[in-house]
Structure formats: structure tokens, C-alpha cells
Amino acid sequence: MTIFDRRGRPLLEGISVQIRCGEGPETGPSPVDDIGATNTETIEEVSPVDRFCSIFNQTLQVFSRTEFQQAVQETKAERHARGFASWDQFVAMEFCHLANAQSLREIEGGLASCGGRLQQLGMKKAPAKSTLAYANEHRPWELYQKVFEQTYARCRQELGGKSKFRFKNRLLSIDSTHVMLCSELFDWATYSRQKGAVKLHFTLDHAGYLPAAMVITTGKYSELTIARRQKYEAGTILVMDRGFVNFGWFHDLNRNGVLFVTRIKKHTRYEVVESRAVSEGKDVTADQVIRLTSKASSKIYPERLRLVTFKTESGEMLKFLTNEMRLAAATIAEIYKDRWQIEIFFKMLKQNLRIKTFVGTSANAVWIQIWTALIAMLLLKYLQFKARFGWSFSNLVYFLRMNLLVYRDLWEWLDHPFEQTESPPDSDPIPQLSLGWG
How many domains are contained in the chain? Predict the structure, then answer.
């Protein structure tokens, strides 16, 4: 049987619904007779999703079980598994992020409190703390990297690949952020004498502001080192801050047809080859074609570059360096301004998901928790874009957390979160007992 939501999309496929009648001696009409005599209009008002599916269950249906099992086989994640499936681990970790579970005990207790409805989530029983801890420590984190890539590909396909700009080039921002750790508990993540850290190197797709890629390292790795190992398609526009300025790398990008926009360093030596006209009354004060003049830089990057000078509202002069020669100077400034979205992304990730404290201390457990957090981020972004209600990201996370195990149609709740749903009246209400006082 296939159950459809109110927009005509299939939600549950191949799931049979059982109606269990109460046991014991019957008094009055048979329950089967009551079902047959129920008003048809009352039955149509109640969606099967409202009866048998929690919101958490419906969010998990975004992920294809077929693709998930394919990733399990490719990574050999269940090669030595004994009864605890990778899907159970995935559901438990997503519950950790969406329900804001603070520990393994809260994950176990939260899932166990579902009252026997774990089968709807694809689980047989709630995992024990030791079972989940062992799986997080030993199962390959590459499984969840593949699940993230599958989810990102689907989100990009359904949400479209258009950014707010008119040009057709793919626009990506690259940056990194630290997650501080205790050096005594996480001795493998050495960063300084008193602290440990992991570093998350992100690539943000400006089409929907979705995370397109991530590399996790310890805190001592340079962001430029990781960026030089990545490969980008020709025609892609990369936006980055001054920490990525390296003319040897810029030469490789230019040779491969990749465009970049960044800010020039103060002590960079150059000469102006051409000055282009700029519109009066605009914030762009200069549009110049330059050539590097220092002995080392001119050999590494002999091609010409473009320098756009922009004046902010506070009077600060910002100079943007790029190898894009066709776009308007104001567009170059807007591209770099849009780079701030990756900083907003870091803030949303750390404030709304379990990314700063961890339920395991091994490197593999930390990697798994970070990747599952990123999958949850994609899921929440997908729901935010699909909803007709004007959700902010933080409000969506907060109210989804409060209604995670509520039985209600997900899409109806996303579109009309504060409207009460009509419940069918009881056909045979239980009479109120009277209290005797004497």
C-alpha cells in the first residue's frame, strides 16, 4: 500500500497497517462493527500519515534506503556487524542532532521512549549506549560522507542550481572554522599546549547556500594546503578571504579555467596596465587591470589581473583581486559581499546542531558526529526551502525539535505550523465517573 501526502507525493511504500482490537471480554458492540459503522467523512478528514507516522519518521523518508545500503556495501561498514545495522546507527545520530541529545544515555532513552514504534523508523530496538559507542568508534566514517554526497546531489537537483546572480557560472565560497576540544580527552587533536581542535574546511554552494564539500583535519592544518588539493570545474567562481592568497595556486586555477575573487594583501606590489571607466555616483571608485611587479610573484603569475576598488558606507576602501575580466565591477564587489554567507553558515551549524560537544572521544566518533550533523543540516535546509511558511533556520530547528515525535503530516506542519488539526470525535466516549463523598 502506498500512502500519499496532501501534495500528492508518496510517503510510505509497502507498509501494511494493522488495527489491533483490545483483548479480554467484550462489553457492548463489537469493535469491528464500530469501525464499519463509522462515518465516511470522518475517516477522510484524518490522514493515515497523521495516524501512523511521526514527523521524525517522515523526515527520515527523505533518504533513500536503497542508496544508503549501496553506500554501506561500498564502504564495507557492516563487514563485522553483529545485529546492529548501520541504518540504526544513522537514525540514532540524526536523533542526537535533531532532538539535541546531550549524551549516549539521552539518545538511548529518547529512542526507547518511542513506545514500540521504532519499527516505523526501520529499527528493531533502541541501541544500548555501549553498542552505539562501539559503532561510532569502529565503523568507517566514510559511509556518512557518501550519504552526505548523495543527499547533496538530491537537494541540488530538486532545489535547482541558480544563485541570486544572473551569470550562469557556479559560485562557491571556501573557508574553514575551528571546533575546540579538550586536549586531555582528545589527545589525538593537538593544537596548542592546553587545547585541542579539529578544523572543518568547507565549500559552500551559493545556489541555496548548501554545503557542497567538507574536509576534516586537526587544527594545525593550513586551509590553503587543503584548498590546493581540491579540484574545481572550469568556469567555477571561487570566493575566498586573504588567507588563501597564493599566486602559485592562482596560476593553477587560471590555467584550469577556474575564476577567483578575493581581497588583495596590503604589501602586494603591482603596476596599473589599464584603467576602466566606472559609473559616477556608484560605490565602485576604480576598475583597473594590473600586472604583478615583484620578482617572485611576476614569475609565478605572469598573467594580468583585475583590481576593483569599492567604498563602503563607513568610508573604508576595499580592493578586490580577480581574474574575471568580463563581469561588471559592481558585480565583483557583490560576489565578495555574498561571501559572508559562509560565516552565517558556520554560525547556524554551531548554534543549532551538536557540533561543539561530542558523544565519543575517538577521532572516528568525532568524524561520524560531524558528518551526520552536516547531513542534518542539508535535511533542514531542504525542509526550509520546500516549506511555504517563512521559516527562519533557527525557528525551524527549535519547533521541529519540539514536535519531532508528534504524529502529524510533515508538509502540512511545515506550511501551517500553528494551525490546529481537527481530530475525529470519539464514537463512544467514556462516561465521566462521579466521585462519592459520603
Answer: 3
- Let me know whether 112 and 171 are in one domain: yes
Higher pLDDT: 3 or 176? It is 176
Average pLDDT (126-131) is: 94
Distance CA 163, CA 165 (A): 5
Task: Single out the residue of 120, 138, 122, 121 nearest to residue 82, CA to CA.
Answer: 138
Q: Is residue 420 part of a domain?
A: no
- Mark whether 187 and 315 lie in a shared domain: no
195-205 and 171-182 strand pairing? antiparallel
49 in the same domain as 71? no
CA dist 127 and 116 (Å) reads 13
Residue 7 within a domain: yes
Domain identity same for 188 and 259: no
CA distance 165 to 339: 13
- Whether residues 251 and 295 fall in one domain: yes
What are 130-174's pLDDT values in tens digits? Answer: 999 999 999 999 999 999 999 999 999 888 767 789 898 999 999
- DSSP 8-state code for residue 81: -
Q: What is the mean pLDDT of residues 49-61?
A: 79
If we measure between CA atoms, which residue out of 378, 342, 392 comes closest to residue 62? 378
Count of CB atoms situated within 10 Å of the CB of 409: 21
Mean pLDDT along residues 55-81: 93
Domain boundary among 36, 54, 72: 54
The C-alpha atoms of residue 76 and residue 81 are separated, in whole angstroms, by: 10
Domain that residue 32 falls in: 2-54
Q: Is the distance from CB of 206 to CB of 341 less than 8 angstroms?
A: yes
Which three cell numbers mark 332? 565583483
Kindly state whether residue 19 falls inside one of the protein's structural domains: yes
Cα gap 233→212, rounded to integer Å: 13
